[in-house]
Amino acid sequence: MAQNTLSRMIGSDMFYSFCRSPAAIISAVIALAIFLGAVCAPLIAPHDPFNLASLNLLDANTPPAWSPDGSSQFLLGTDDQGRDILSAILYGSRISLVVGFASVLFSLVIGVTLGLISGYAGGRIDTVIMRIADVQLSFPAILIALLIDGIARGLLPRDAQDALSLYVLIFSIGISGWVQYARTVRGATMVERNKEYVQAARLIGMKPFMVLRRHILPNVMGPVLVIATIHLAVAIITEATLSFLGVGIPPTTPSLGTLIRIGNSYLFSGEWWITIFPGIALILLALSVNLLGDWLRDALNPKLN
């Protein structure tokens, strides 16, 4: 069974298109390397940046190992708290990926659900949902995320803000990105609901929920997967931006945005490695995911095949 599945996958048009795209291959290798490094961070990281007992302030602002004042214990140097930059990048990539995947999944569920309802029901329901989407589109996603994060911080107790910051960040990024899914699914649903197989399902008495789940949803998921892949890169950058602004992950938690923000204060004093290496990791992660999304969009476009 597994061998037949693998054979069909290798012989598919998607795999052929992937093998003919050097950018997709390189992007997949980079994304996979960062993903495996983040997942296996407890096993491959030289140090644990979460273990405050192991940190030594005397090791703070140590340059990379190849510098004259560097140490072989810290390959990419340390930050202002003595945390190993390489270990912080590996653990910080985990936070970026968790926030990215969770917020994209949250946006996808809300957007696809509202898009199916809007496109299938029509009428006033469609008007209300689309007007809400239009209003949200008039504001940048980062401003919506900042607004929601500020409201959450005002409502939550001060001692619980750090513990719930990750969930607030996921919710704020996720709620700001559902519109693209909803508008795309709505358009596809309005096309599919007038086709013969949907009309036949209605005639035999199938309930609207079953029609949406069994017949319409599988036929509108192609564009949704492309949007989700590209949105993942946007969510990762948004998380880093919020953390850079100091409203995302707490400063004690090593994330890519936090490391860039900390390093930015020391950039002109000579400690360039604190912000440069996390910035490179963020660029590679976002760019590789974005290029994979571009390839997936072209591979699923029948006009280009």
TrEMBL record:
Residues 93-293 form the ABC transmembrane type-1 domain. It is found in: Cell membrane. GO terms for cellular component: plasma membrane. The chain crosses the membrane at residues 21-45, 95-120, 132-152, 164-181, 216-237, 272-293. CDD domains: TM_PBP2. GO terms for biological process: transmembrane transport. SUPFAM superfamilies: MetI-like (SSF161098). It is a multi-pass membrane protein. InterPro entries: BP-dependent_transpt_permease, MetI-like, MetI-like_sf, OppC_N. Keywords: Cell membrane, Membrane, Transmembrane, Transmembrane helix, Transport. Belongs to the binding-protein-dependent transport system permease family. PANTHER family: ABC TRANSPORTER PERMEASE PROTEIN, OLIGOPEPTIDE TRANSPORT SYSTEM PERMEASE PROTEIN APPC. This is Peptide/nickel transport system permease protein. It comes from Paralcaligenes ureilyticus.
